[in-house]
Amino acid sequence: MSSSPVEDRYVVVVNHEEQYSVWFADRALPAGWTATGARGTRQECLDHIEQVWTDLTPRSVRTSR
């Protein structure tokens, strides 16, 4: 991911259901979401999510199978 502060405008966040999203780096995280450590441009964050979020099924559904 990018290392320039100007380009690190977004962070990748995840919730308790292991669902991913992109959030603004300069804003407080919404309740229930945790930063993953990945950051960069919006597209870089989306690319990262595409690589790591391979099963879109919520965690609670996956574990109840």
TrEMBL record:
SMART domains, sorted: MbtH
GO biological process terms, alphabetically, are: siderophore biosynthetic process
Write down any Gene Ontology CC term: cytosol
Residues covered by the MbtH-like domain: 4-51
Q: Which InterPro entries match?
A: MbtH-like_dom (IPR005153), MbtH-like_sf (IPR038020), MLP_fam (IPR037407)
Where are the coiled-coil regions? Answer: none
PANTHER family in the record, alphabetically? ENTEROBACTIN BIOSYNTHESIS PROTEIN YBDZ
Q: What is this protein called?
A: MbtH protein
